[in-house]
Amino acid sequence: MDQFNDFLQASINILGESIKVEQIVKFILILIVVLVSAGFLHRWFRRLFNRLRVPQDLANRMLALLLLIVTVVGIGLAFGLAEISTGFFGKAFNYPLTQLFQTSQKSDETEAGEEQSPVGVDGDENPLTLARLFYAFVIVFGAFILSKYVQWALRRQVLQAFQIERHTQFILLRFIHFTFIIIGILIGLGAVGVSFTSLAIIFGGLSIGIGFGLQNIASNLISGLILIFERPIKIGDLVEVTDTDIFGRISSINLRSTVIVSLDEKEVIVPNSQLVTESVHNLTHDNDRFRLRISVGVSYNSDVELVRRTLIEAAHEHPQVIKDPDPTMENVTAPFVRFVKFGEFSLDFDLLAWIPDSFQRFDVASDLHFMIWEKFKVYGIKVPFPQRDVHHFYPKEDE
């Protein structure tokens, strides 16, 4: 028992502060009680919000704020009840981190008998500390928040009023965002105490890293700039990456990757270098129109004029098909039928029709297939199927 009491009364020197083991144990126990109480309050307020029918998003935010307040107050209470001086935090935040990576050196005595600190320990006017790192983080985070607010204000108050294109808005807002982030990073590095000479050395090392192991990342970044400024694809374009069979609408173009929303509302993240180096079919580069090609085959004893009239009739009955294009629709024609070839088992035709929205091409094509099939049954037009003769060969019995 005496040994245990001696252990509790033992002191630990942390950055010049003498703290007893008993105080540390008391602090941990109080902190555990605080966390358990915070969990109980969290469950109790959750049930209360459910009874009051508070919206889920608002309830989650209020519970998170409550948990944060209880935790901060509990930590302060634990320090007070454990009688641990909070001056320890000031020393911890202002402790030079560079000393953690320096070997211990014996202080030299001068002729007057005074101790001289090792070179480079006290001579640094701007030591790297946790406080400086925290200030740098606050500056960069503040620049990020300010960038988001400025983008929101410009989008709502300026860009929409001038009716600027969506892709041009995207480029301007991205440029503003990167400008704010770069300025915040430079100011944050200045708060930490990093000089521009050190930055030049860091960027020199990064260039070597790019040459050896970051070629893919560098390629995606350069490709992202090409996509943003050259504009082979834009926000809202309907694209098809032929090599990987990706089809969907462009949602956002970032520096490293592009987000494509597929037909089933799934977001596909594609590296920018893939969109620059591979074949990409942009269905809406100039406009959203698309020409459908419906291929059908009929039997050889069918009336070809009846087949043509039936296909055109089906196209004119669909509401999404452009029947009478106006002069502003360049190269857009009314639905027509093309006699393709005399097939091995059928006469092959193509129904060609334009629709205003290429994103609906699969649905419209499906509707036309249903309509053509019903009309073929009404007019007695038959669709042939391949005829195959199967010959069975039986081995001769041994004589």
Quick rundown:
With 399 residues, the chain is α+β, with helices and mostly antiparallel strands. It contains eleven helices and twelve strands.
What keyword list fits this structure?
11 helices, 5-stranded antiparallel beta sheet, 12 strands, 3-stranded antiparallel beta sheet, alpha+beta, 399 residues
* Helix percentage range: 40-55%
Rg over C-alpha atoms, rounded to the nearest angstrom: 37 Å
Question: How would a crystallographer describe the biggest sheet?
Answer: 5 strands, antiparallel
Question: How would you state the average pLDDT, rounded?
Answer: 78
Strand content: 15-25%
Shape descriptor = elongated
- Strand order in space, largest sheet: 8-7-6-5-9
Amino- and carboxy-terminal Cα gap: 107 Å
Q: Count every beta strand, where a strand is a DSSP E run of 2 or more residues.
A: 12
Low-confidence stretches: 105-112, 115-123
User: What is the element string, with H for helices and E for strands?
Assistant: HEEHHHEEHHHHEEEEHEEHEEH
The number of distinct helices, counting runs of at least 4 residues, comes to: 11
Question: What class would the helix/strand composition place it in?
Answer: alpha+beta
